[in-house]
């Protein structure tokens, strides 16, 4: 196909599929790049983009919109200059109201299924720390570019909690079984260069602009690949993990609720929260 015909076809399909986004997001900025029609979703819940029910619900909605509009791709990033996301909002797990916790966990499952299983390509421009749930969101994306001198990893065991099996499968889809076991059992947070060495991220960046540039370049790889072939291939690789959670969704919610409300686990969370607060006080 001639290059000019290709670009005309692309322009036509972009016009007909232009995504329409709600302007009502409180915790997200959503913008579409005019050059390649890639959508950048920016997490914007200060101070640390911790994932509470509201933020998760908005991420879930935007993923639905992107799928409906047959988006050619999405970049996930943060408005903070030092935190991509601090993971799940600990306040949703500390002394939780059971009904609220169930909604919260359901929303997290939704985000995971939609992001890990999206038919469109995804990249994370990780411009800050990405512990626990932050690492999960980044690993759900197909490509990760991370700004130097930050931390990423599933550190749940450090908090006395356990990464659910679907978190673990997401890491197994990213790095080796051996590295996953060592990382999870020790709750290891990797510095950017260590994450690159182990394959947890794909590229390093000097700053956010560089991360966005490299993330945008990732999508050029798919210009000549029919989207349907791409999406089926991704589904062949990831679909069974998603089916497993779909089958066990209710059980996963109940088990997590009963574990998280155990007094020992609650004490551990309290201790961790106190550490976070003390860190601030001792720095002042
Ligand atoms: C065997 C029993 C198993 C039972 C359970 C079973 C399954 C449950 C599975 C649950 C899975 C959970 C996954 C998660 O995501 S847990 C969350 C893990 N997150 C973290 O460990 C990160 C904690 N935060 C930090 O390390 C730092 O905040 C930082 C991200 C590196 C940023 O540092 P800095 O810029 O210096 O900011 P501060 O530390 O001063 O924080 C500012 C402010 O934000 C509060 N905060 C930080 N993180 C969270 C959070 N995740 N949730 C809620 N709030 C958070 C922090 O306390 C400060 O608040 P104040 O300004 O009020 O002091």
**β-sheet strand percentage:** 5-15%
Helix segment tally:
11
Distance between the termini: 63 Å
In CATH, the topology is named 2-enoyl-CoA Hydratase, Chain A, domain 1
Query: Which H/E pattern describes the elements?
Result: HEEHEHEEHEEHHEHEHHHH
Overall mean pLDDT score? 93
Shape from CA axes? globular
Alpha-carbon Rg, integer: 19 Å
**Total strand segments:** 9
Uncertain residue ranges: 1-16
Q: What is the level-2 CATH architecture name?
A: Alpha-Beta Complex
Highest-level CATH class: Alpha Beta
Category by helix and strand content: alpha/beta
Q: Which cofactors or ions or other ligands sit in this model? A: ligand LLH4SW3U
Please estimate the helix content: 40-55%
Number of domains: 1
Q: How would a textbook summarize the main sheet?
A: 6 strands, mixed
CATH superfamily: 2-enoyl-CoA Hydratase, Chain A, domain 1
The largest sheet has its strands arranged as 1-2-3-4-6-9
List the helices and strands and how they pair.
Layout (H helix, E strand, L loop, with lengths): L2 H14 L11 E5 L6 E5 L9 H16 L5 E5 L19 H19 L5 E5 L3 E2 L1 H8 L2 E5 L3 E3 L11 H8 L4 H10 L3 E2 H7 L4 E3 L2 H11 L8 H21 L1 H12 L2 H21 L1
Parallel strand pairs: 2-3, 3-4, 4-6, 5-7, 6-9
Antiparallel strand pairs: 1-2, 7-8
The site of ligand LLH4SW3U has 29 residues, from helix 10 and helix 11.
Would you give an account of this structure?
The protein is built from 11 helices and 9 strands. By secondary structure, it is α/β, with parallel strands linked by helices. A hairpin with a 6-residue loop joins strand 1 (28-32) and strand 2 (39-43). The chain is globular and about 55 Å long. The relative contact order is 0.12. Bound molecules: ligand LLH4SW3U. Its main location: mitochondrion. It catalyses: (3Z)-decenoyl-CoA = (2E)-decenoyl-CoA; (3Z)-dodecenoyl-CoA = (2E)-dodecenoyl-CoA; (2E)-tetradecenoyl-CoA = (3Z)-tetradecenoyl-CoA; (3Z)-octenoyl-CoA = (2E)-octenoyl-CoA.
């Amino acid at each position: 196909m001639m290059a000019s015909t290709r670009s005309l076809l692309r322009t036509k399909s972009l016009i007909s599929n232009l995504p329409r986004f709600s302007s009502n997001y409180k915790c997200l900025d959503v913008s579409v790049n005019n050059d390649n029609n890639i959508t950048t979703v920016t997490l914007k819940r200060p101070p640390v983009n911790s994932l509470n029910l509201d933020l998760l619900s908005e991420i879930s909605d935007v993923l639905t919109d992107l799928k409906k509009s047959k988006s050619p791709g999405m970049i996930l990033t943060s408005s903070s200059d030092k935190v991509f996301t601090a993971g799940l909002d600990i306040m949703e797990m500390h002394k939780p109201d059971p009904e609220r916790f169930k909604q919260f966990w359901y929303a997290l499952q939704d985000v995971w299924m939609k992001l890990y299983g999206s038919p469109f390509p995804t990249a994370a421009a990780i411009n800050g720390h990405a512990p626990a749930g932050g690492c999960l969101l980044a690993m759900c994306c197909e490509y990760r570019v991370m700004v130097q001198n930050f931390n990423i990893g599933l550190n749940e065991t450090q908090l006395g909690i356990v990464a659910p099996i679907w978190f673990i499968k997401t890491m197994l889809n990213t790095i080796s079984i051996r590295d996953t076991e060592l990382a999870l059992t020790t709750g290891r947070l990797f510095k950017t260069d260590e994450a690159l060495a182990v394959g947890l991220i794909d590229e390093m960046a000097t700053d956010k602009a560089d991360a966005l540039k490299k993330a945008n370049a990732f999508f050029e790889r798919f210009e000549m690949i029919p989207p349907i072939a791409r999406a089926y291939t991704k589904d062949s690789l990831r679909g069974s993990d998603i089916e497993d959670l779909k089958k066990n969704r209710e059980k996963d919610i109940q088990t997590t609720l009963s574990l998280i409300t155990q007094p020992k686990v609650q004490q551990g969370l309290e201790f961790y929260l106190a550490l976070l607060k003390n860190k601030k006080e001792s720095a002042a």
